[in-house]
Specification:
The complex is a heterodimer of chains A (121) and B (108). With 121 residues, chain A is an all-beta fold. Chain A has no helices and 11 strands. Chain B is an all-beta fold and 108 residues long. The chains are: A mainly beta (121), B mainly beta (108).
Chain lengths: 121, 108
């Protein structure tokens, strides 16, 4: 059974940093691309960033490019999102998801339960 | 960036009725790489359809997807109580992945 467990959310200061983690199990982690998506309170879904299984290929939404960094540790089966220069508009539930292939352009076939990030002073 | 427009915003139907949800893209979706997700209140999204028409694992056959190019449709043949939720389309044929704004299917 595929399981994705996010952690690291909480309250962040404007201009500050937070790091999210996503622990994966139930599949061969290094064989699949992984992604982060977010959902602001009461709003729709927004894709944030994707990384290929090897970690070589990445992509970012324009809204986070230059501020957020996605990376992974395949030995620990864990995906990360380093969030710097936080803004109020980054407040959202952040979801980790597994892609259906190793290619960064694929559908999201399994999702974690999400981690709430609140940016406020 | 491909903009996805979902309609209607809200669909009010009764259990047993047929639901037809639309997703229109601002430009052609490469390889018809279009997915549909269901999100129930307080839950994470769940993949229903990928590649415009392929059902994901364990998805009931009352859910079906169709369309190509810029126009796509999700059909729920007979609504069950657990189907009342928000549905999102997503395109992954372009490097900047995008979601539609969602359609809420509510009980009439």
């Amino acid at each position: 059974e595929v399981q994705l467990l996010e952690s690291g959310g909480g309250l962040g200061q404007p201009g500050g940093s937070l790091r999210l983690s996503c622990a994966a199990s139930g599949f061969t982690f290094s064989d699949y691309a992984m992604t982060w998506a977010r959902q602001a309170p009461g709003k729709g879904l927004e894709w944030v960033s994707t990384m290929s299984g090897s970690g070589v290929n990445t992509d970012y939404a324009d809204s986070v490019k230059g501020r957020f960094t996605i990376y992974r540790d395949n030995s620990k089966k864990t995906l990360y999102l380093q969030m710097n220069s936080l803004r109020a508009e980054d407040t959202a539930v952040y979801y980790c998801a597994k892609l259906g292939s190793n290619w960064i352009n694929s559908y999201f076939d399994y999702w974690g339960q999400g981690s709430l990030v609140t940016v406020s002073s | 960036e491909i903009v996805l427009t979902q309609s209607p915003g809200t669909l009010s139907l009764s259990p047993g009725e047929r639901a037809t949800l639309s997703c229109r893209a601002s430009q052609s979706v490469g390889f018809n790489y279009l997915a549909w997700y269901q999100q129930r209140p307080g839950q994470a999204p769940r993949l229903l359809i990928y590649g415009a028409s392929s059902r994901a694992t364990d998805i009931p056959d009352r859910f079906s997807g169709s369309g190509s190019g810029t126009d796509f449709t999700l059909t729920i043949s007979r609504l069950e109580p657990e189907d009342f939720a928000v549905y999102y389309c997503q395109q992954y044929g372009n490097s900047m992945l995008t979601f539609g704004g969602g359609t809420k299917v509510e009980i009439k």
